[in-house]
Amino acid sequence: MSEYASGSNITDSTPSMTECYENYVLVDVGANLTNKKYSRDLDSVVQRAKDAGVQKIMVTGASIRSSKEALRLTRIYPGNLYSTAGVHPHDAKSWQDPETLEELETIAKNPECVAIGECGLDYNKDFSEPIIQRSVFEKQVELACTLNKPLVIHERGAQADVLEILNRHTDQIPPVLIHSFIGTAEEAQIYLNHGYYLGLTGYVCKDKSDSGVRQLLEGGQISLDKILIETDAPFMYPNTRASKLPTHVKDALTERSTTFLQRYCTFQRNEPCALPAIVEMVAAFMHKTPEEVALATAFNALKIFGLNQ
Ligand SMILES: [Zn+2]
Description:
Pfam families: TatD_DNase. The chain is α/β, with parallel strands linked by helices. Helices cover 41% and strands 14% of the residues. The two termini are 34 Å apart. Zinc ion binds at residues 118, 154, 179-180.
């Protein structure tokens, strides 16, 4: 606990660290900052993110309760935190007609709430019946169309059904982010063909397959204008020490980003200050500079979600 309790400012002790990202903003498009793991030291977490160059963070809503809480946090950190409002597929069974939709709409109408989601389908963990998941997902797709707010979609083992539901609304569909993408390069291509964006996380360290996210990045099959970067904190810790991580990717990590990672992030609790390390690794896989990736992905985030209030 003490590891997280300090509010120490990393830039005080390491002045060289201010140089790297100061000329542009990094945006974390998905952090679960309403998670109880942050209840004791959220100020420090947000400050560390800023020190790491992460100027804007979208706080994920995954239930009515967490969507309300995420909106509340945007009021405490205006211009810095934004929120999303949605009911996660795990929680689909909690949906009540018509109250849940009404509550979601009330939250989502606020300008600080910049997207509908997480919503979607998760067939890997059947916490809610697939038939209920589909109906709850479609109601949120309709809400996103009505409010014209982007969709943040969680999909695990359910691509065909996600696409089928989205395809029913193609006329009015807002921008779609497939958040925390961990599928195959082939699945990625299908999403990209639909014009959807992919959210990449610390999973780039974990992917050991030769047909997954790494291959997607290395093979040049995805262009920077379709990528968004997110920590999905406290989950998806980028384990930069993973043995399968190629040497050229490990070597691309700067002292600055690894210092934030090693001081403040663990498998138990990842933080938005891990974002620069993810940007650097994505850049290395794509044989681009981290500056290019940071600039392009931040631009995508600002374009899709607004984030200017
Ligand atoms: Zn998710």
